[in-house]
Give the backbone structure.
Amino acid sequence: MLHPNQFQVNETWIAFKLNDAPIETGADGDFNLIALMDAASCFILSSSLVPAGQAGPSKIESKRLLKQASAHKKNLPKTLYVPIELAAANLTVEAEQQKIAVIGIPEGQLLVFIGDVREGFKERVGGGRIQ
């Protein structure tokens, strides 16, 4: 079983969907919030709102996610874990182009990292409407 103490800071990042249900914004439509987290510190490095009907982050959104995340330590990780349930083809391609090894993993194995932040997000926003 994976655990944060198995990693060094900035060695491995985790991509995941923060929300359980689409975030309703009214006129702009529904969105999912995709985040990148450091596996050792469980610090969220970057996030992006992605239209709920879109199959994961676009190429541009993927580049931006990685660029924003790398700004914290001025470095990219060796590895990116991506839940196999997450539509993230563009993010996977972009990470691999930047020499990051991408590993698909069942989301359940990542809950030790992402469970608390998801629960906190759900308590504050849920699948509700953002004004």
